[in-house]
């Protein structure tokens, strides 16, 4: 991670044309949201209790192997219970009460366009329908996010299937487009709430054909536009630079409207990242602002976190350790003890970790509002405290109102404001 010598002054992106019918003003209002992670797409580290029977082996590491191991009846029962309990109308009301205006809801293709031979079970869509009603009554906007594509677009457990990256093989691209089309038509009458559909989460630039991904983005945009004129279409940056790679693509000059570019900013998934000190993390966040403001499309940081380490149990995959304390196989360094960051509660975090997190979160909000705004990952987790927006906010570690700052101006100075650093 290269740290800018000095943080850049606050920068604001230029407004873009938008259709009158879209019900959130992505030019002038900031997206402030949370991801409802671990709800319709299981992630072992978000809900380790569901995966407890395989904690010491057995090959169940994702939703695919979970449903395969349980079989259709047991999988259906367990998942129905989870879907009905993990997030409820109360969550939507509390999200709105904290001043947030968006939820991003990950969902897998298997909920929308199940394929023969898959072990996955269905029943997510009627609950998503309810969620859109809860969002409406709470005054929240929804970005529906296709988080898993057939074959897996990134091989991460959060795509539904850990392992090989086979998206784009066979008919998987057209099957994904069908899922998008079905979603767009299903919610075409709900544009007062469903302001955006994300075509695909985190396609892996290291394993896929990027020219074919770009064509998929155009085709997916067309599928959404066939259903209605007003839903914004979110495209993920595929881990390419939002300016140098994506400027010029699908902007208004290219004849498309209402496109949101989504970038995810984590500072924890390499040894260099976890080696950074709290002040380095703040500066790295601040250094993103000018790039975000220089994009030629609406741009959100659609995932980010309070975590400065990869300590959370199973974050790197079920049964895997962390780079931070050297327990991940292949990692070489030791940067600190994971302690209470491995598993526990927000209240149980060490004071030093609470302080560092508070500064880091505020700096990220400052920087990520340089363009269209941000969506935190995640609203809640079972036991990963640094990722739990609800409890972090209840504990006073995330500002209320969201625009207030205990530590203002972190991105206006190159000096470190964190005590003891
Ligand atoms: C979040 O808060 C709830 C309610 O106090 C508590 O039961 C839960 O353990 C907390 N989880 C975390 C990760 O802080």
UniProtKB/TrEMBL annotation:
Record GO biological process: cell wall organization; glucan catabolic process
Record localization: Secreted
Top class in the EC scheme: hydrolase
Entry keyword Membrane: no
Annotated EC: 3.2.1.58
Main location as per UniProt: secreted
Catalytic activity: Successive hydrolysis of beta-D-glucose units from the non-reducing ends of (1->3)-beta-D-glucans, releasing alpha-glucose
Gene3D superfamilies: Glycosidases
CC terms in the record's Gene Ontology section: cell surface; extracellular region
Pfam families: Cellulase
Domain Glycoside hydrolase family: 75-310
Keywords annotated in UniProt: Cell wall biogenesis/degradation, Glycosidase, Hydrolase, Secreted, Signal
Listed GO MF terms: glucan exo-1,3-beta-glucosidase activity
Entry's family note: Belongs to the glycosyl hydrolase 5 (cellulase A) family.
Protein name: glucan 1,3-beta-glucosidase
């Amino acid at each position: 991670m290269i740290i800018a010598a000095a943080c850049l002054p606050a920068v604001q992106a230029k407004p873009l044309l938008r259709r009158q019918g879209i019900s959130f003003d992505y030019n002038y209002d900031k997206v402030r949201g949370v991801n409802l992670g671990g709800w319709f797409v299981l992630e072992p580290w978000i809900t380790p209790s569901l995966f407890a029977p395989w904690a010491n082996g057995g090959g169940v590491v994702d939703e695919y192997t979970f449903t395969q191991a349980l079989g259709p009846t047991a999988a259906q029962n367990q998942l129905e219970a989870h879907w009905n309990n993990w997030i409820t109308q109360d969550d939507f009301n509390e999200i709105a009460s904290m001043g947030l205006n968006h939820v991003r809801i990950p969902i897998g293709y298997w909920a929308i366009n199940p394929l023969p031979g898959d072990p996955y079970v269905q029943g997510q869509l009627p609950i998503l329908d309810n969620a859109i009603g809860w969002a409406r009554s709470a005054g929240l906007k929804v970005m529906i996010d296709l988080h898993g594509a057939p074959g897996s677009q990134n091989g991460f457990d959060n795509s539904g299937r850990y392992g090989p990256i086979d998206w784009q093989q066979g008919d998987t691209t057209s099957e994904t487009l069908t899922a998008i089309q079905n979603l767009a038509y299903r919610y075409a009458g709900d544009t007062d709430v469903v302001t955006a559909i994300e075509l695909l989460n985190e396609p892996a630039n290291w394993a896929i054909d990027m020219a074919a991904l770009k064509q998929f983005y155009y085709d997916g945009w067309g599928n959404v536009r066939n259903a209605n004129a007003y839903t914004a279409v979110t495209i993920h940056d595929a881990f390419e630079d939002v300016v140098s790679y994506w400027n010029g693509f699908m902007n208004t000059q290219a004849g498309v409207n209402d496109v949101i570019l989504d970038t995810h900013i984590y500072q924890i998934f390499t040894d260099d990242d976890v080696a950074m000190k709290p002040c380095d993390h703040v500066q790295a966040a601040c250094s993103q602002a000018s790039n975000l403001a220089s994009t030629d499309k609406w741009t959100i940081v659609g995932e980010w976190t309070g975590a400065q380490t990869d300590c959370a149990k199973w974050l790197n995959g079920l049964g895997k350790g962390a780079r931070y304390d050297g327990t991940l196989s292949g990692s070489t360094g030791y940067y600190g003890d994971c302690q209470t960051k491995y598993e526990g509660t927000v209240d149980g975090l060490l004071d030093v970790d609470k302080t560092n997190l508070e500064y880091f979160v505020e700096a990220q909000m400052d920087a990520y509002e340089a363009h269209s705004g941000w969506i935190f990952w995640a609203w809640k987790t079972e036991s990963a405290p640094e990722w739990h927006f609800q409890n972090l906010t209840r504990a006073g570690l995330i500002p209320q109102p969201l625009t207030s700052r205990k530590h203002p101006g972190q991105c206006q100075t190159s000096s470190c404001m964190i005590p003891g650093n």
